[in-house]
Amino acid sequence: MWKLTRHQWRQVIGTLILAIAVLAFFFMPLPKYIEGPGEANDLKTFVKMPGHSDTDKGKYMITSVALAQARPATYLYAKMNAIYSIESVDAVTGGQSNATYDKVQDFYMQSAINESIYTAYKAAKKPVTRNYLGIYVLSVDQKSPFAKQLQVGDTVTKVNGHHFNSMIGYQQYIQRQKVGAKATITYRHDGKTRSVTKKLMRLPTKKAGIGITLTDNVKVTAKPKVTVDAGNIGGPSGGLMFSLQIYTQVTGQNLRHGKKIAGTGTIDANGDVGEIGGIDKKIVAAKRAGATVFFAPYVKPSKLLLKYEEHHMTNYQLAKATAKKYAPNMKVVPVKSFNDAVHYLQTH
């Protein structure tokens, strides 16, 4: 019977340990996330408008940030590459479960699409309506009296029988009530209308509240009909670029003139562009995809604002600095609104 010598056993064990170490280096999950440049996708493939296809050369591109759970190998790579960042789980998910986080990101994307359609059709003077459904529940405080009923993804439609046409309307009405006063919340959950009556809690502001983080939930209807499928991209940052793609198709205008144009920024019902996260990584993604123009949200910098900004720079400042290093031939264009972006395209 063949037997291994002590030396051979050591070699086998050493090889196994080395194999396990290599596997762990590349595949063992760490309690961190790695953020880096994602993709820059052609919006022609996202927006469908029968009878109004986009056949002009060039493209509008929606840029994204790649997010993945860290492994020792990717953690080390991120440490050695400035364009990548290492984030805590809570910083990425806000302490929510993966399923809840995905639900919120999907809502943000659908909301961005709705506001993009409204902005583009309004600018094109095409029939469009914006119906305010209520306040979308983004998170629920564990101490909230409504915590066992309200869930992330629900939409509050009435408070004490009152429906308002803005998030501010709901907030102001609730804050006028007394802490501890009973309030009946009517809400939609999985397509069904429900109601619950509980006492209002005291918020950190010392005013009465439900104990939820919220945002607006709207439904937009437009003619001609348009559908937008963002696939697995989530979040609100594609609003501006969706608006430009939809506007181009509904008007038939050729604003790109063959250029590859990328960008980022939220959009609201007034067409105002808002700041987002990870713009440095989106600049690199756009460069890799061949973009020569990049629209970046612009806000006037101040000491207080810069204190809380990513890398202590506004979106536009960070985009400019990143382009100078990684994409020196890319034109970074500051925009405050959808109209700013259209005006730039019309005049350049």
TrEMBL record:
One of its GO terms (molecular function) is ATP-dependent peptidase activity. It comes from the Bacteria. The keyword rRNA-binding does not apply. The chain crosses the membrane at residues 12-30. Residues 129-198 form the PDZ domain. Residues 232-297 form the Lon proteolytic domain. Keywords: Hydrolase, Membrane, Protease, Transmembrane, Transmembrane helix. Coiled coil: none annotated. SUPFAM superfamilies: PDZ domain-like, Ribosomal protein S5 domain 2-like. GO terms for biological process: protein catabolic process; proteolysis. NCBIfam families: SepM_fam_S16 (NF041438). This is Lon-like protease. It comes from Levilactobacillus parabrevis ATCC 53295.
